[in-house]
Amino acid sequence: MTQILIVGATSAMARGCAYAWAKQGQRLVLAGRDLTELERIASDIRLRFASNVQVAELDLDNVKHLSTRWSDIEAAHGDIDGVLMAAGWMPEDNDAMRRDTPALQVIARNFTGPVALLNAAADAFETRKNGFIVGISSVAGDRGRQSNYLYGAAKGGFSIYLAGLRNRLFASGVPVLTVKPGFVDTRMTWGLPGLFLVADPMQLGEQIVQAQAAGKSTVYLPSFWRLIMLIIQHVPEFVFKRLKL
Ligand SMILES: NC(=O)c1ccc[n+]([C@@H]2O[C@H](COP(=O)([O-])OP(=O)(O)OC[C@H]3O[C@@H](n4cnc5c(N)ncnc54)[C@H](OP(=O)(O)O)[C@@H]3O)[C@@H](O)[C@H]2O)c1
Q1: One Pfam match, by short name (predicted)?
Q2: Which domains does the chain have, with CATH numbers?
Q3: Percentage above 70 pLDDT, the chain
Q4: Alpha helices, DSSP H only, in the chain?
Q5: How many CB atoms lie under 10 A from the CB of residue 138?
Q6: Residues with CB under 6 A from ligand 1
Q7: pLDDT band at residue 201 under the 50/70/90 scheme
Q8: Which residues contact 163 (CB under 8 A, 6 or more apart)?
Q9: Ligand 1 atom closest to Cα of 60?
C-alpha cells in the first residue's frame, strides 16, 4: 500500500484520481489552500471507501518554502510514495495576464510552484529508488495562442520539466507521467465561451490513475486531443497568427 500526496485536491479531476486510488486501498494526503473543503472531501472519501485520508495545507504561491513544506508533510504523515500535481490556475479575464500580479500568479501556480515541490519529491524518490510522479499539464502548452499564451507558456514549461524529470528518474525506477487534458468540465472552465468536446472530470481522473498504473509517459485525455494538437501544431505560423484562437 502506498501513500499518495495530491496537490490541488479540491479540483474535480484530482477527486476522480482520489476516488480511484482510494478504491484500490491507497492512503492519501490531500493538499491545498482550503483546509475546510479538503476536510469535506477527505470525509467523503473515508465514508465511501473506508480509506486512510489526511489533509495538509500547501500554497504554491509560497515558492521559496515548498521544499520545507515537503519535508514537513513527510514528517507529519510519513513517507510519500507518489505525487499527483493537479494544481493550476487560469484567470477568467484574459487581460489579467497582461498585469504583473496575475501574470506572476499564473507562472507560480502552473510552473514555479509545481516545480519547486516536485524537485523536493524527486530528490526523495531518487534516494529511495521508489515513488512516482504525475503532473497535470495541458494541451494549451503545445502551442502559443493569443487568447491564453501565458497560461500556455507555463504549462508548456511544465511539460518540458516533466519530460526532463522522467529521463532523470528513469535510472532510479521512478516513473513520471505527463497528463495533457483538453477541455474538462471543472471550475476552471465554467462559463467559458467556445468550449467543445468537454470531458467529465471524474472519468478523466480514473483514466489518469489507469495511465499511471500502465507506466505511460505522456497521455492526452481524452485521447483524440493528440490528433487535434498534432494538427494545430502543424498549422503554418502565417495562417495561425490570423486565426483568433
Ligand atoms: N479544466 C480544464 O479544461 C483543464 C484543461 C487542461 C488542464 N487543466 C489542468 O487541470 C488541473 C486541474 O484543474 P481543474 O480544471 O480541476 O480546475 P480547478 O477546479 O480550478 O482546480 C485547480 C486546483 O488548483 C489549486 N490551486 C490553485 N492555486 C493554488 C495555489 N496557489 N496553491 C495550491 N493549490 C492551488 C486549486 O485549489 P483551491 O481550491 O485552493 O483554489 C484547485 O485545487 C490544473 O492543473 C489545470 O491547469 C484543466
Answers
A1: adh_short
A2: 3-240 (3.40.50.720)
A3: 100
A4: 12-23, 35-49, 66-77, 100-107, 113-128, 149-170, 201-213, 225-234, 237-240
A5: 25
A6: 8, 10-13, 32-34, 58-61, 86-89, 109, 136, 138, 181, 183-184, 186-189
A7: very high
A8: 178, 218
A9: 32
All 3 cell numbers of residue 142?
503545445
Question: In angstroms, rounded to a whole number, what is the distance separating the alpha carbons of residues 192 and 133?
Answer: 30
Q: C-alpha cell of 15?
A: 477527486
In tens, the pLDDT along 96-126 reads 777 878 889 999 999 999 999 999 999 999 9
Q: Which residues, in sequence order, are CB contacts of 235 under 8 Å at separation 6+? A: 243
13 vs 146: CA distance, rounded Å: 26
Closest CA to 11 of 190, 229, 214, 221: 190
pLDDT digits (tens, 9 = 90+) for 138-192: 999 999 998 889 999 999 999 999 999 999 999 999 999 999 999 988 888 887 7
Q: Which amino acid appears at position 103 of this protein?
A: A
- Split at pLDDT 50, 70, 90, the class of 132 is very high
